[in-house]
Design brief:
The chain is of the alpha+beta class and 202 residues long. The chain has 3 helices and 10 strands. Strands 3-4-5-9-8-7-6 form a 7-stranded antiparallel beta sheet, with helices on both faces.
Length: 202
């Protein structure tokens, strides 16, 4: 079959008309109500809430999540300090915990905890504080909720004001993303709250 002569004005006009009709046909077949799908994230399956009693080298007892693992740092244990982490392998998260005995310097310890939390202020949208006060257990402190793309979204300290001081900070191993981490963050925030409500000094 011979090729049409595209150099002629008649044939070029015919080709242009054909292309225009084809484009109009494609455009008219598009859904006028089309809305781009929002960005999605992988579904995160969270375990049922369950707690076990923990009593380690530090002079504290508390209920920790049954789905966490305790990571001890015996090389750092001394008369002056005690370090351990609560690890959440499925969520790439850790709560770094440091116990320190109070030696007349509780105000400095509280000030340091405040500084550690507000170190993330540059990346934070807001920082809110929740007071912990239990006269019966002699447990007092604050939980800092750090909103936004900060490296640590929750930090806390607990003390009896005279002998004991415990500080904790939640970190995720992956890059912080407020939207994708929101369900896990809320889940672990409840666990931190439970920890503060069950802690007793030894």
């Amino acid at each position: 079959m011979p090729m049409p002569d595209l150099t002629s004005t008649h044939n070029r006009s015919f080709l242009l008309a054909f292309v225009c009709i084809a484009m109009m046909s494609v455009l008219s077949s598009c859904d006028e109500n089309y809305v781009p799908r929002p960005r999605g994230y992988f579904r995160i399956d969270l375990p049922e809430k369950s707690y076990i009693n923990y009593s380690g080298n530090c002079p504290v007892e508390m209920e920790i999540p049954a789905y966490s693992k305790v990571e001890l740092f015996k090389e750092y244990d001394s008369a002056d300090s005690c370090w351990f982490n609560l690890v959440f392998p499925k969520n790439n998260a850790r709560i770094y915990c440091t116990y320190l005995p109070v030696q007349g310097d509780v105000d400095k310890m509280i000030s340091d905890s405040y500084a550690f939390a507000f170190k993330h202020e540059m990346k934070a949208d807001a920082i809110t504080r929740t007071a912990i006060q239990d006269d019966e257990r002699k447990v007092y402190g604050l939980i800092y909720d750090i909103k936004g793309e900060a490296a640590s979204q929750v930090q806390f300290f607990l003390t009896d004001s005279s002998q004991h001081f415990l500080r904790g900070a939640l970190y995720f191993s992956n890059r912080p993303n407020q939207d994708s981490l929101a369900p896990v963050l809320s889940f672990l925030r409840d666990d931190i709250q439970h920890l503060t409500e069950t802690l007793v000094w030894r």
